[in-house]
Automatic annotation (TrEMBL):
SUPFAM superfamilies for the chain: C-terminal effector domain of the bipartite response regulators, CheY-like
Keyword check for Phosphoprotein: yes
Residue list for modification 4-aspartylphosphate: D62
Record's protein name: Response regulator transcription factor
Pfam families, per the entry: GerE, Response_reg
Domain HTH luxR-type: 149-214
PROSITE patterns hit by this protein: HTH_LUXR_1, HTH_LUXR_2, RESPONSE_REGULATORY
Length: 217
């Protein structure tokens, strides 16, 4: 296995109501260099951990928690300054995958994923990227097609969808960059690519096209 390129230790919160799975994930993260691993079995426990310890470098969350929605927890942690969120789920439903990214997740992994896939996904997110389990990636692509101004379907990447959602939320390029840990220039490049795909450089029109396609809320 290729060693993780980051030398410093990272902190992580693992949220899952199945003790064995939670412990297995925690052990794998420690083997990848996690220095501090907090564990939670519910939304309430995760919320308490988050408030007590502040944002960790990474959070891995189950969507099916006993006392609430994992998607709501993703949104809540995102608003609290958690910038690297990985969803761990049983479902490969395209709507669930898309909803996770729209809520603010950077990765979507299936519970049935191999240890190598989990490692790849975590590495990608720690390095500032986004990741979809290879099993669901084709499904995600089919759910992110937006008709451009000429009504021809254009496929947007998960990151482009994320940028567009923040544009729809009224955030500036600088604010989007801060939220996604990107430079303002990179955000501008993403918007330029989105504009070329959709046939318009107008932010409001890009958002309107994506909303009509159901890609963003």
């Amino acid at each position: 296995m290729v060693p993780h390129p980051r030398e410093e230790l990272f902190s992580v919160l693992v949220v899952d109501d199945h003790p064995l799975l939670r412990e297995a994930i925690a052990a794998r993260l420690r083997s990848m260099g996690a220095g501090t691993v907090h564990e939670a079995a519910s939304v309430a426990e995760a919320r308490a951990r988050a408030q007590a310890n502040g944002p960790c470098d990474l959070a891995i969350l189950d969507l099916g928690l006993p006392d609430g929605s994992g998607l709501d927890l993703v949104t809540e942690l995102r608003s609290m300054g958690w910038n690297r969120l990985v969803v761990l789920a049983s479902s490969d439903d395209p709507y669930a995958v898309r909803s996770a990214f729209q809520a603010g997740a950077q990765a979507y992994l299936l519970k049935s994923a191999s240890p190598a896939v989990v490692t790849d996904g975590v590495k990608r997110v720690l390095d500032g990227g986004v990741y979809a389990d290879p099993t669901v990636a084709p499904l995600l692509a089919t759910g992110t097609r937006v008709p451009g101004t000429d009504n021809t379907p254009r496929e947007l990447s998960a990151r482009e969808v994320e940028v567009l959602q923040l544009v729809a939320d009224g955030q500036s390029n600088k604010e989007i960059g801060e939220a996604l840990s990107l430079s303002a220039l990179t955000v501008k490049s993403h918007l330029s690519r989105i504009g070329r795909k959709l046939g318009t450089g107008d932010r409001a029109q890009m958002v309107a096209l994506a909303m009509r396609a159901g890609v963003i809320r």
